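Q: Given only this backbone (198 positions), what sequence would you predict?
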């Protein structure tokens, strides 16, 4: 049997002025007793701006997700995740639309066999639309693992190591050298704005 107030795919929402939040709570029970408990709560604020020729919105939400799951023979798996989600969008005369989303989370996981681990990940998504042209660019997710406590010691379990490898393989390294001018370009720029001799 499942008892739930809202669901992960359709959470409840509460809004007062520019502040709002939501979440869900669910408990699963089986013939042998307790199976799992899930709780998710989110809180944040949204601000909309309209300047006539341009309009946009900003939002910031922080949330927490907790899961307690029964495990054999007699133990529980615990997952605790905290996250931050920032969104910004801009629309100019309906011709140009741009949006940016930043998502970051930290997760603590403890298994019934005594292993514990903590990791975090972050992702940035940029979307731009100009007339009929649109493009989406995603950086990440970039994942970082921290030393865990409990029976796991300092070593990461194999599934954690697999996640690190997968995240590293999927991440596109960014080369910032193209943003800086060469010495010749800088000298030419400096000469154009050099103080004239009198």
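A: Predicted residues:
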């Amino acid at each position: 049997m499942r008892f739930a107030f809202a669901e992960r795919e359709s959470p409840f929402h509460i809004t007062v002025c520019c502040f709002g939040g939501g979440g869900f709570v669910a408990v699963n029970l089986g013939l042998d007793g307790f199976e799992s408990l899930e709780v998710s709560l989110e809180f944040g604020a949204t601000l909309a701006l309209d300047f006539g020729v341009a309009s946009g919105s900003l939002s910031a939400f922080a949330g927490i997700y907790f899961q307690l799951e029964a495990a054999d023979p007699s133990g529980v798996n615990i997952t605790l995740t905290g996250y931050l989600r920032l969104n910004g969008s801009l629309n100019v005369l309906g011709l140009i639309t741009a949006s940016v989303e930043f998502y970051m989370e930290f997760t603590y996981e403890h298994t019934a066999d005594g292993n514990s681990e903590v990791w975090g990940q972050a992702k940035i998504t940029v979307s731009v639309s100009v007339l009929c042209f649109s493009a989406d660019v995603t950086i990440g997710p970039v994942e970082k693992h921290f030393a865990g406590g409990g029976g796991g010691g300092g070593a990461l379990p194999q599934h954690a190591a697999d996640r690190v490898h997968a995240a590293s393989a999927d991440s596109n390294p960014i080369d910032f050298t193209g943003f800086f001018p060469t010495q010749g370009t800088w000298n030419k720029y400096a000469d154009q704005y050099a103080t004239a001799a009198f």
